Amino acid sequence: MARESFDKEIQFLRMLVLTSGAYSRQQFAERLGISVHTFDKTIKRLKEIVHTVTEELPENQGKEFADMLRFSYYESSDPMLLFLYRAKSLKESESYRLSLILIALQEQSLTAAELMDVCSSGLPEDFPLPDEKTIRTDLKYLEEVGVIRRETGRRPYRYRMNNDLVTQLSEDELLDLYDFVDVMANTQVPSVQGYLLRDSLKKARKQKEDAQPIAEPFLYKYHYYSRILDEAHLYTLFQAIRERRKIWFVYFSPKSRTRYASKNTNPLFEREAAGKQELLLPLKVVYDHQYGRWYVLGNVPRLGIVKYRVEGLTQIEVGEAVSEEEFARKLQKLEESLRYSWLVDTGNPVKIKARFYHPEGAQTNFIKERVQLQGQWGTITEENENSFIYEITVNGTTEIKPWLRSFGSSCEVLEPSYLRREFIAEWKEIQSYYEPVREDL
Amino acid sequence: MNLFEKIFNYQVISRLDESGTFTLTSQERSWLKTMLGHPAAADAFPAETLEKLVTLLEQEETIEFSGLMEKAKSMEKQVYHPLLRTLRRILEKNQGIRITYCNKDGRINCDQSGFPYKLEYSMVKKEWYLLWYHRRHHLYMSTKLQNIESVHEESVPATLAEELTAKIEARLESRKEHAVIEVVRMYNRELSRILYAFSCFEKEVAYLDESDIYRIKVTYLGDEREYVLSKIRFLGKRVRVIEGEQLKQRMYESTAKALARYGVEQV
Predict the structure, then answer these.
(1) Which of A83, A158, A249, B151 is the most exposed place for a label (fewest CB within 10 A)?
(2) How far is CA A407 from the centre of its chain?
(3) Is the pTM of this model over 0.95?
(4) Domain range enclosing B18
């Protein structure tokens, strides 16, 4: 069986989160490159998952899906999009069986034969009874993912839950662990395993503390939510890089109107895919904190260094490996080109000089604090009572420009002169947007 | 490593939930082991707990994030603060605080009675804040943990705790502001980038089919206005505030002052 791909769900959720309710069904489906029928089917499935995992059915029954996913900063610190990782399809009999095995093992360690008895008596009547081979396959899987472990000793082997990490801790220690996982998942990347672990620990705490509702003490101000969706592809990319392998994928540029194309096996329904088939030797995976977006950077023969946004990747397949020597050579070249990238620009380096003005009448110099915090490798060269000079060499001016502009009148670009002229022109144009306001004053 | 494991399947999870069973996978433990390598771990646990965790995770492998690079990241000056452990326990018990802290102007306020609401991490400033209610001054406060000299628990009856929480929440609700930001149509091709930039706020997007125009309605707290403004300036000509008088006015002032810096005369 082909590996289940979640491309459609990922693209679907991303569009839903970013455009929160902007499109009608028709428009949404069209932009995603799917039929309205598929749209309905996908939303139905995703809703079912959300309802099952959040147990919020009564409250949210009448609510629109997009509304439910609307990021409400003060209401919840649970990342709603995490449910994507709960989407793996499973036959109902299998999900029943796996649950029965785990519930039984939570109580005590058991052998395969004993677990077969548990399943035989526990499964609903209309399900086929599992044979020993099935149970052994289940146990092998659960052992592989690290959920259970085989106890040492003679045959028949006994299996038990692999939950020492939690059971060996006191309540107080578990609280510290929960907080640490919460903080790290929210402040570091990659984070999905952290969020999954946070979920598990939450359940463990609930169990230890007689299901008392646990108030979430922490808030994180300004998260880029959809970064969680891009993490779905990360481990394929990490693995390809580690093994020096190329990857195949179909790319949808974020600037194109369509985001997805179904891989149809029936030629009658086949249509021109809007994406492009690409082959890349991945070298770096870059997280851009400025927008909360992921990139994959690599090498393509004849083109050299190529950059893709991870959100545009679909149908990724790992291909053949290259020699260590080739990988090292290309990586070195990329690293050299990235040395002065504000984000991922590999253009020619240019030296930028800007004057930042201290805030007037403020108790803290929040401008300087921000420049020191966010100014990457740039340095402050001169300073007087009103202002300071910041200098940085970066590849091209495009990527640093929004950051400089975000300071508004607290930043004056001095060099290069063309950038200075661009800033003057832009401020004039932006001012023209607000001209009527002046008349009102 | 696969993030879409059968064991994470929603039906399995919900069945386990019903019976109070939980599971931990190797990849979750590996992630934890990797994170315990971060210097923040030393502030998060008493030494003996940290040691215990390291021993419990001995068999696990750390995750190799091959080729990972982070760009435009703020300097990470603080991920954990030693006071987090104390404060979160007071929050857990729904109790009050006696707090001595330093004001922005450096003045010290001794032994004030308060009620904590949440601990907030600013991803922008990379610092922790305590959000709390000043009982004598009836003020909603936000104090950097760095500026807290001392804090300890003060008993508060449950009914009062409930009242104070409700008060804080009502105050937060009343501070909410809205603004409508329009994507200037010729930049529709950059929509994805623009929406990403606003994806950290509570927002709704409207699409006007006939004119092919996108409007983003952003909801934020009053004291976050400056941050919203910096995002709007960040995007430059691509967006325009069409609703929200204060924002419009601040944008106008900002452009006038910026142009003055460049010596451009205003007509």
Answers:
(1) A158
(2) 28
(3) no
(4) 3-56
